[in-house]
């Protein structure tokens, strides 16, 4: 999930997309990998129970391109790790 203020404020996301994903996470262990792309109230959201790829103080819009690449690599490494389990 690419998380931003717009994402968290979206009725479509909160009413259509997320309920089934959160249910799957709770009941089936589906992995949720939030990536905070812009400053937002992530820690006060319903997603805060999931560890984001980056911290709320390390949002992509504040990082250099090199740091963004490092976060993308971290995300890809985590996905590969989950696939290979």
Short description:
49% of the residues lie in helices and 5% in strands. It is mostly helical and 85 residues long.
Give your account of this protein's structure.
The chain has about 80 residues and is mostly helical. It contains three helices and two strands, in the order βααβα. The protein is about 50% helix and about 5% strand. The mean pLDDT is about 90.
Question: Layout of SSEs?
Answer:
Layout (H helix, E strand, L loop, with lengths): L1 E2 L1 H5 L1 H18 L6 E2 L28 H19 L2
Helix content range:
40-55%
CA radius of gyration: 13 Å
Distance between the termini: 21 Å
Nearest-integer average pLDDT: 91
State the order of secondary-structure elements, H for helix, E for strand.
EHHEH
Low-confidence stretches: none
Structural class: mainly alpha
How much of the sequence lies in strands comes to under 5%
Shape, please? flat
User: How many strand segments?
Assistant: 2
Name some characteristics of this structure:
single chain; mainly alpha; flat; two-stranded parallel sheet; 3 helices
């Amino acid at each position: 999930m690419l998380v931003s203020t717009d994402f968290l404020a979206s009725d479509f996301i909160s009413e259509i997309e997320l309920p089934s994903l959160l249910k799957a996470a709770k009941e089936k262990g589906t992995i949720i990998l939030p990536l905070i792309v812009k400053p937002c109230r992530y820690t006060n959201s319903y997603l805060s129970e999931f560890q984001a790829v980056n911290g709320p103080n390390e949002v992509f819009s504040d990082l250099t391109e090199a740091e963004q690449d490092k976060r993308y690599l971290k995300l890809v490494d985590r996905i590969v790790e989950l696939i290979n389990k």
